[in-house]
Design goal:
three-stranded antiparallel beta sheet, 28% strand, homodimer, DNA-binding, 10 strands, alpha+beta
Chain lengths: 233, 233
DNA sequence: CTAAGTAAGTTGTACTGTACAACTAAGTGC
DNA sequence: GCACTTAGTTGTACAGTACAACTTACTTAG
């Protein structure tokens, strides 16, 4: 039998958690512990950590656990992003992380505990302002690129909406993520043809014409459109 | 300092290697060793194995090493597919694999050594005929789905072509992978507009009208089209 | 009560890339 | 020379969006 005594890399899971706050795309960050000997003490990092071979039955379960520990959110959109592994990404030795990305709806309420160690950071460009521990900037940038790319031809932003929203609300989220305006009528046609949302018997009141409220259809998987938005130049 | 003495999962890399042989999409498989104590002895599996923390500087280097060990091919198309990790996918304990998929051109010549332990298997449906070790069937199916999906809107099949090929050749590869016929004139228009290939000053002779030969433009990254082929039903 | 302002939502025309189908072109074999 | 086959082109139809102008429904100022 093979001995299996050779050195094993460290195995972690990290989660890029996106939400719309103050009308802006933001990512959740946690502060690294400040204990002596911890790598990147007090720096901001993506939520994540070691796979616990006792508690986590698989990688996705581990990601869900970390997501719930930080946000209290259960059952949001969760997708595998990729993995990053090398001899030098963690000073403690050869390490590989399995990265996920998650979209959470509305304006989520964070768990109150340890609020100083958890915070939302707005996405500007492809990343966030603070320096991040490990190679977490690379991972975050990959997540932003993947999100932007998919928003061109999928209904992913629907997972960032609160339970009831208007079509202009949804369009603003698309525009915020893509960083460019979209055509109102084409947007509406596409969304309504997608069999993705259904109107509720209410209107959003405001200082001008009320807007129809919609909600996501039950347990709706993301819709893939046959074309991207607008001319890609 | 954190002790790092907790148990670590096994870390492996597996590669799904696709090529067109006999006009059919095929995947490379290797036979598991037959030694006592080895999991899944003598079964077919994807090429791969443990990360070697001494030799592999990162995951991609590890995938490239395994690719070259099995095929002798250097520098083909290589893309990360995802990762699979759980407590029960390997009888030796909690294990996570980082899966890649690769497209190799033409009709590749395998390394001769140990030819009995390496073989191509045609893709039928979403998988291959033989039973596979571990969860390699899941991984292979995910690779086939990803490839099919991307072929709808990218130029990936170009990486499966020999150095010189005709447009009908390329179209046949598209059709083989997608499992449905494509429109000749729309296909040609799309491919020629993509700035992906260039004609060489030669024709493919045959029993009927000669066809223009093309080659991939130098170091060409895959092209993403703004629409999928055909009506998706 | 009316008019201005604003955002929601609709309508009509133009355009782009593909679908579909018929056509022409260039070779082989008999 | 003619039938056959595959390469490659041409022309019309169509689908989904881009663009822009329009109508609708509400609030607020006067």
């Amino acid at each position: 039998m093979e001995s299996l005594t050779f050195p094993r890399p460290l195995t972690t899971v990290d989660v890029v958690i996106f939400a719309i706050l103050d009308g802006v795309l933001q990512a959740l960050l946690v502060r690294r512990p400040s204990e002596k000997g911890e790598p990147f003490p007090d720096m901001w990092a993506l939520p994540g950590g070691f796979v616990d071979v006792e508690r986590d039955k698989d990688l996705k379960a581990c990601a869900i656990r970390k997501l719930r520990e930080k946000t209290g959110v259960a059952g949001p959109y969760l997708e595998q992003l990729g993995s990053w592994g090398s001899s030098n990404r963690d000073p403690r030795g050869w390490s590989a992380t399995h990265a996920y990305f998650s979209l959470i709806p509305g304006s989520p309420v964070l768990l109150e505990q340890g609020a100083a160690d958890v915070g939302w950071s707005p996405i500007t460009g492809n990343s966030v302002a603070p320096k991040l521990a490990f190679d977490h900037r690379d991972i975050l940038e990959a997540a932003v690129r993947r999100l932007r790319n998919k928003v061109e031809y999928t209904s992913l932003p629907a997972y960032l909406m609160p339970s009831e929203f208007t079509l202009p609300d949804l369009q603003h989220v698309y525009e915020t993520i893509l960083g460019r305006p979209l055509e109102k009528s084409a947007f509406r046609t596409r969304m309504l043809a997608a069999d993705l949302i259904e109107p509720v018997a209410k209107m959003r009141k405001g200082p001008n014409r009320p807007a129809q409220l919609y909600r996501l259809k039950n347990a709706k998987a993301p819709v893939y459109f046959a074309r991207t938005f607008n001319p890609p130049r």
